[in-house]
Amino acid sequence: MKKIFALLVVSMLLLAACSSGSSNGKESKGNSADENEITVWAWDPSFNIKALELAKEAYAAENPDLKVKVIENAQDDIVQKLNTSLSSGTTKGLPNIVLIEDYRAKSFLQAYPDMFHPLTGSYKTEDFVQYKVEATSVDGENYGLPFDTGVTGLYVRTDYLAEAGYTVEDLQNIDWREYIEIGKKVKEATGKRLLTYDPNDLGILRTMIQSAGKWYVKEDGTTPDLADNEALKLSFEIYKELVDNDLMNFHSDWNEFLATFNSGKVATVTTGNWITPSIKAETSQSGKWAVVPHPSLPGMESVNASNLGGASWYVLNAPGKENAVDFLTKTFGSNVDLYQKLVTDVGAIGTYIPATKGEAYKTGDEFFGGQSIVSDFSKWAEEIPQVNYGMHTYAIEDILVVAMQNYLNGQDLDKVLKEAQQQAETQIK
Question: pTM for this structure?
């Protein structure tokens, strides 16, 4: 019996030792099963995922030992998975690198300050357009490596303009009220409305106020700035002028949005440059489009450049972070040739300034009458005012959707924005 008992004790000790060793081994390898492997999460197979595959090829040419595993997730799923894991204080099950939309970035960085690995000093921030650097930084520390720009442009149908007696030169560096006056004459001559918009998506307000260096929150990124925000007030007024003059076609989903301009129902499209492939999808319209600078806000300090969308790369503070940083800095952080391929193969305009001198950025696009639209967008991107997007862009915009409807239905604008301010202050803490 003593021998049997002794054997049982030894067996239990061995099992415990094996169990302990297995646990430590798994922990030391962090989020990946292999210390020579990193994992990246992103969305959109034809854009972000394709860009990652090109980055993998470029990196592997010089660094063949590191395996980069790219996993596609819907953006909403990435947001949910990050929140679920990070709120429980763990990075287990998460990737080494994750793509996060710029409007959402600070909500993660400020809510989970120890979960992301700082990138300060790992790449030259001065080589990137500065509004993107601001979007990826908190308290002077840089956490993200900028990727694509959502720099906006005003896409115009040159044939419709010509019918109304206008040329592309007439729309260079105009403000929104000048744009409206042109729209009235275009509609009179062609029967076409100026643009189309989803009333439940007020991204147009973002483009208007950022052109004036303003946002829905003050510079601290937290305090709602609605009631006394003159740029926002003017944006509401301009939106109503577009509606009152019957210059806005309204759609309810993405497919309707595409169908409206692909079928020729509107004379212009004002949004981020990411819409270019969708406009070019209607090949019968080749040569009938041009892109001019985004309208500015009249009567105040505002530029003819703004932004809508865009995302950046972040490294989680977990084992493998050094490899993750190396991958990012040698690809999206410094590889000029990679950015040429991103333009030609993906249509992605990055925010890496040295890349703009490459041939891919200068090439004319026959669809747009030979215009070098990538070069133009890159130039406008450098003019976009820096703002602090803060943590609450979408929460505040939900409030403003209702506020806009109240204003369009006849309520006083000052009253509408004051109530929105009070509601935002109550909800956002």
Answer: 0.90
